[in-house]
Write a structure and sequence with these properties.
The chain has an 8-stranded mixed beta sheet. It has helices at 13-16, 36-40, 70-73, 138-145, and strands at 9-10, 21-29, 57-63, 74-80, 96-102, 105-111, 118-125, 127-129. The protein is built from 4 helices and 8 strands, in the order E-H-E-H-E-H-E-E-E-E-E-H. It is an alpha+beta fold. It is 14% helix and 33% strand.
């Protein structure tokens, strides 16, 4: 059975990011590239629209505290929503806040160059959800319920 290129797999936030995510900066529109000629002609910038859902795209930089490789720890998440998503948590340090995502999907991709290619994912979400337990970690949330499921490798 073949799976089409670009297929998006729905995934639970806790399975993808067992220690949660830290949002760095703010959510901003994901605008299309605008050439120097377009800017000089005064053409307006256009926000990208997702080809699958038809929703406007927003982007934000996040850091995964569970990632052991520094180059892979920070990446962009794309939000698919008609209006700009607003985080539900407050900042813990200037410009940094723990976040959890709802409507999370993962699209497999190949990243890297030359002989240093590796499996990567393009993550998309529909918005933010309230961080459970205040700490934003799966371990802390599971400890209160008495069970913890390990992340599949």
């Amino acid at each position: 059975m073949a799976i089409d290129k670009g297929h998006r797999f729905g995934i639970d936030f806790d399975d993808a990011f067992p220690q949660g995510l830290v949002m760095v900066g703010e959510v901003s529109p994901d605008n299309e590239y605008q050439s120097r000629e377009d800017r000089s002609a005064g053409r307006p910038t256009r926000q990208r629209v997702d080809e699958v859902t038809g929703k406007r795209q927003w982007k934000v930089m996040v850091t995964d505290p569970a990632e052991t490789k520094a180059k892979r720890a920070s990446f962009e998440i794309t939000f698919l929503a008609d209006v700009q998503p607003v985080p539900t948590t407050s900042e813990v340090l200037p410009g940094m806040r723990p976040v959890e995502l709802e409507g999370l999907t993962a699209e497999p991709r190949v990243a890297g160059q030359g002989e240093f290619k590796y499996q990567s994912y393009a993550f998309r979400a529909t918005g933010f959800r309230a961080v459970a337990g205040g700490s934003g970690t799966k371990t802390a949330r599971s400890a209160s319920s008495g069970s913890e499921s390990p992340k599949a490798a």
